[in-house]
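It is worth pausing here to work through a concrete case rather than discussing structure prediction in the abstract. The textbook approach is simple: state the sequence, then state the predicted structure, then interpret. We follow exactly that order.
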Amino acid sequence: MTKPLTILLAAPRGFCAGVDRAIQIVEEALSKWAAPVYVRHEIVHNQHVVSRLEDLGAIFVEELDECPTDRPVVFSAHGVPKAVPAAAQARDMVFVDATCPLVSKVHVEAERHHKSGREIILIGHAGHPEVIGTMGQLPDDVMTLIETVEDVAKFEPKDPTNLAFVTQTTLSVDDTAEIVAALQVRFPEISAPHKEDICYATTNRQEAVKVMAERADLFLVIGAETSSNSKRLVEVALRAGSPKSELVASAENVDWDWFEGVETLGLTAGASAPEDLVQGLIAACRARFDITVEEITTAEESVVFRLPRVLERT
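Step two, the predicted structure:
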């Protein structure tokens, strides 16, 4: 007799509007200019997405100087330092910026604070492309990266009454709230974003996991090791009460020994993971267990971002 397994399936999950737009930008660029189209950095952090676009004719590189000047280049959804489009213009290249509009909003906020003469704190993870892109919007030494509450205690500003903070869009909502609270206790006059910088999709996916986690004996998050928002979902599941939580790239990466004693599985996908990977994992479970799928809906998403004008069809 096949063992029963209840799958709690998070909704919303998977692609957000910024990821949808970025992938569509590469597809439309290939349609408009034909292959090859170069893409600086992974368009989104998911190897399945990258491989599919490579099959269509996209070539992924890490630096602009790896691109020929006679082919178009797309900048990834994470955003790039200002020096990158400036270098593309200097080389007379055709380029399309696929930066998520919610990341661009953070860039604009940082510039506004800089023009107002404020010293800026960026809450984020060192080395993440979004952090590199945001810090690269302004001259060196005007933005300080803060990763933890401990960093807040060590930070010595030039003028504690003239500070502002912005954040990476894919952080843990709860961890960021702790860091913001520490900043506001230490620097009561610090300027905050008009609207929270952590994007709606990150927030919604974390909220869904929080609702489901206590019921799940095991929680699986489909996403890449390089995906910040996916890794945060694993942490959120553990913090919200699931005894075990794992990040998997696809069904092929599941260790079925994890399912020993598991009656209820929580399942979600990071914002750059395609839905076919979710369905593939459900199918792999169906081949081994007598499954019941219960979709847990905590929010409805209807956000759509327009494509850059250069790609809009007439």
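Step three, interpretation. The longest strand covers residues 4-11. Residues 102-186 form a domain with the Cobalt-precorrin-4 Transmethylase; domain 1 fold (CATH 3.40.1010.20).
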